[in-house]
Amino acid sequence: MKRTWRFWLALWAGKIITMGLLVTGKKGTTLPGKIANWIDPQIMRHLSVAYTDGIIMVTGTNGKTTTANLLASILRQAGKVFAFNQAGANLVTGITGALIQNTGWNGLSQASLALLEVDEATVPKFCEQVSPSLAIVTNFFRDQLDRYGELDTTVRMVKGSLPKETVLVLNADDPLVAQFGTNHNQAIYYGVERTPDSQGDSQETREARFCPGCGTALDYTLFHYGQLGIFKCSGCGFHRPEPEILAKDVHLDEGLMLFQVDEVAFRIALQGYYNLYNALAALTAARELGFKDKVIEKGLRVFIPQAGRMERFSLPEGDITLTLVKNPTGFDQVIQTMIGVDRPLGILIGINDLAADGRDISWLWDVNFERLGTHEARIQKVVCTGLRAEDIALRLKYAGVSVEKLILEHSLTGALKMLTGSRAEGEAWFILPTYTLLFPLREIVEDRQKSAGLSNSGAKERGEEARA
Amino acid sequence: MKLAICHLYPDLLDLYGDRGNILTLAARCRWRGIEPVIQKASLGEDLDFMGMDILFIGGGSDREQGLLVQDLMRRENELRKAIENGLVVLSICGGYQMLGKYYQMTNGERIDGLGILDIWTIAGAKRLIGNVVVELDEKKSSGNSNKFRTMVGFENHSGKTYLGEGISPLGKVLFGHGNNGEDSGEGVRHLNVFGTYLHGPLLPKNPHLADLLLELAIQRRGVDTSLMELDDCLEDLAHKAMVKRLLKQA
């Protein structure tokens, strides 16, 4: 399709606004993208034709940002230049903004490859204009239902809009994702043999207990987490596809996760088995793009987690781990990680219910807080903050945490003081905010770390390791 | 004393944290020395409605709801008898709609409901989503623990429910949409059957309703004991925080 005057006007307007934002010291791709789309609603289509080596799309409920960042780390190791919508700007406006940033005033792209994280609900709009060469689908979990209606609709929407010629990189262990490969030209699967926590029986909230094809209850021989596992449908024969990329010998060691794929040993500086899937998704895509295992291994190894994903801070009183919580499966994994630490626990939970958090907070009752309840003796305190501080406190009361250990504190600075004010021998501290509380809380913790002359301990160690 | 609480089809109808209602009923029994016996009933399983004390029916996604209407139809007679005998039922969203006469889809096709409640539901074009505050009808909600006149929760439905002549809503919507977004009514009570659109989940932040259900169940057993008072400090704070915030917005 020919580029029209609308396109040039939209591109230049976008670029001028991007520059304006830079001059005033602000970062942002949303505003330029918004204006550019207003001028030329087809701008994504026009911008996308410049990427002759292809466009890689990452979508799904959880792990989009981490997967995209892991793949970006591999691409950098390989010396690739690529367009990237960093910082989770994954709606039409943010994607357009990122592409504009990478396009010159003459309309030529600086990179021949693009790596784009795309919000599930945005996939139809995106694929209407852009035909990705590779699409990674991570998983589907209940997430901000109030925004999307129901999970079934989301899955159907994404599946229906992916072009036939796109190569799919699919999570074999998630039935909702694995079904994408049925009747599709080319699909590559990744999966996990077992993790130390895999079980024959799962008590967690499960999304897809029923076959996405025929509605029969699925039989599982193994659950990894959530509905992820080794499944089979007795009704229509749909089953977990044999993964081309299979992680074996998965284990944890001092904050690192180690695994093997085809006799090659990999490791990532991330906790939580959900991050294993993110690494596998990036690895599978990288192999499909033709990169060597040596490059992939290094790209994964040197990766430094981004803001608020199991991020570690050092305060004079002790270390704090900060991690975003946004849905039951993610929260369950965090609880499992906290219990696994095997120390007394001081926890700060911040729950907001603004649009970006999800207006409906009922998902808190789908989180398996009862697991914390069974380790009640180890809990020193839980500080509850945010617009829904009372709701999370109430949830914990019904999960078996004694009311004396629950502290309601609406001020964020106050809440952090309550957390760090006293410390039992060996007490581990965790801060678990929803999205709109993540950055405000992170800023407070970071400021305190700086004013004490300390540095972000986890990142420093990993930096040294990366150079070694 | 034991109370038998049945969670109907939790593997199918378990959206929006509705299992929180069961957790709440169970905890509020235990804290009073009553032993809750929870039955999680699956599709096709034997059910003794007459022997239950409280029946809970939650909401599910459209596909899952379709699967079980048929299953319930087979048991309609026994369920109806138990309800006439005073069985306490809490039905939410999809569960509430299913107890009515029918659900009319956008193409005009009607899916039969159980017809236990004189209500019917018409698919709407717009989803009614958001926080809700309801002022409860005194006659429908009075029990011993009568501390709130309000009910708070979160609604998320596209069906609009209308009530027949002889039946009136559980209360009046002060904030949000309610049954249909038109007549400011929310929910229904018929005998000891409660229907509502409120998730949240409903019972944790509305302890007065949780206790009303428990009281009615105990009364049906013919036991003459009033419920022991509990320390509801956190429950009250959570309830009042939402009422205050939403009515300020209204």
Automatic annotation (TrEMBL), chain A:
<dbReference type="Pfam" id="PF08353">
    <property type="entry name" value="MurT_C"/>
</dbReference>
<dbReference type="InterPro" id="IPR043703">
    <property type="entry name" value="Lipid_II_synth_MurT"/>
</dbReference>
<dbReference type="GO" id="GO:0005524">
    <property type="term" value="F:ATP binding"/>
</dbReference>
<feature type="binding site">
    <location>
        <position position="211"/>
    </location>
    <ligand>
        <name>Zn(2+)</name>
    </ligand>
</feature>
<feature type="domain" description="Mur ligase central">
    <location>
        <begin position="58"/>
        <end position="196"/>
    </location>
</feature>
<comment type="subunit">
    <text>Forms a heterodimer with GatD.</text>
</comment>
<keyword id="KW-0067">ATP-binding</keyword>
<feature type="domain" description="Lipid II isoglutaminyl synthase (glutamine-hydrolyzing) subunit MurT C-terminal">
    <location>
        <begin position="324"/>
        <end position="437"/>
    </location>
</feature>
<comment type="function">
    <text>The lipid II isoglutaminyl synthase complex catalyzes the formation of alpha-D-isoglutamine in the cell wall lipid II stem peptide. The MurT subunit catalyzes the ATP-dependent amidation of D-glutamate residue of lipid II, converting it to an isoglutamine residue.</text>
</comment>
<dbReference type="GO" id="GO:0004326">
    <property type="term" value="F:tetrahydrofolylpolyglutamate synthase activity"/>
</dbReference>
<feature type="binding site">
    <location>
        <position position="214"/>
    </location>
    <ligand>
        <name>Zn(2+)</name>
    </ligand>
</feature>
<keyword id="KW-0479">Metal-binding</keyword>
<comment type="pathway">
    <text>Cell wall biogenesis; peptidoglycan biosynthesis.</text>
</comment>
<dbReference type="GO" id="GO:0071555">
    <property type="term" value="P:cell wall organization"/>
</dbReference>
<feature type="binding site">
    <location>
        <position position="236"/>
    </location>
    <ligand>
        <name>Zn(2+)</name>
    </ligand>
</feature>
<dbReference type="InterPro" id="IPR013221">
    <property type="entry name" value="Mur_ligase_cen"/>
</dbReference>
<dbReference type="GO" id="GO:0008360">
    <property type="term" value="P:regulation of cell shape"/>
</dbReference>
<comment type="similarity">
    <text>Belongs to the MurCDEF family. MurT subfamily.</text>
</comment>
<dbReference type="InterPro" id="IPR018109">
    <property type="entry name" value="Folylpolyglutamate_synth_CS"/>
</dbReference>
<feature type="active site">
    <location>
        <position position="360"/>
    </location>
</feature>
<keyword id="KW-0472">Membrane</keyword>
<dbReference type="GO" id="GO:0140282">
    <property type="term" value="F:carbon-nitrogen ligase activity on lipid II"/>
</dbReference>
From TrEMBL, chain B:
<keyword id="KW-0133">Cell shape</keyword>
<feature type="domain" description="CobB/CobQ-like glutamine amidotransferase">
    <location>
        <begin position="5"/>
        <end position="206"/>
    </location>
</feature>
<dbReference type="InterPro" id="IPR043702">
    <property type="entry name" value="Lipid_II_synth_GatD"/>
</dbReference>
<feature type="active site" description="Nucleophile">
    <location>
        <position position="93"/>
    </location>
</feature>
<comment type="similarity">
    <text>Belongs to the CobB/CobQ family. GatD subfamily.</text>
</comment>
<comment type="function">
    <text>The lipid II isoglutaminyl synthase complex catalyzes the formation of alpha-D-isoglutamine in the cell wall lipid II stem peptide. The GatD subunit catalyzes the hydrolysis of glutamine to glutamate and ammonia. The resulting ammonia molecule is channeled to the active site of MurT.</text>
</comment>
<dbReference type="GO" id="GO:0004359">
    <property type="term" value="F:glutaminase activity"/>
</dbReference>
<keyword id="KW-0315">Glutamine amidotransferase</keyword>
<keyword id="KW-0436">Ligase</keyword>
<dbReference type="GO" id="GO:0071555">
    <property type="term" value="P:cell wall organization"/>
</dbReference>
<comment type="subunit">
    <text>Forms a heterodimer with MurT.</text>
</comment>
<dbReference type="InterPro" id="IPR029062">
    <property type="entry name" value="Class_I_gatase-like"/>
</dbReference>
<feature type="binding site">
    <location>
        <position position="127"/>
    </location>
    <ligand>
        <name>substrate</name>
    </ligand>
</feature>
<dbReference type="GO" id="GO:0008360">
    <property type="term" value="P:regulation of cell shape"/>
</dbReference>
<keyword id="KW-0961">Cell wall biogenesis/degradation</keyword>
<protein>
    <recommendedName>
        <fullName>Lipid II isoglutaminyl synthase (glutamine-hydrolyzing) subunit GatD</fullName>
        <ecNumber>6.3.5.13</ecNumber>
        <ecNumber>3.5.1.2</ecNumber>
    </recommendedName>
</protein>
<keyword id="KW-0573">Peptidoglycan synthesis</keyword>
<keyword id="KW-0378">Hydrolase</keyword>
<dbReference type="GO" id="GO:0009252">
    <property type="term" value="P:peptidoglycan biosynthetic process"/>
</dbReference>
<dbReference type="GO" id="GO:0140282">
    <property type="term" value="F:carbon-nitrogen ligase activity on lipid II"/>
</dbReference>
<comment type="pathway">
    <text>Cell wall biogenesis; peptidoglycan biosynthesis.</text>
</comment>
<feature type="active site">
    <location>
        <position position="199"/>
    </location>
</feature>
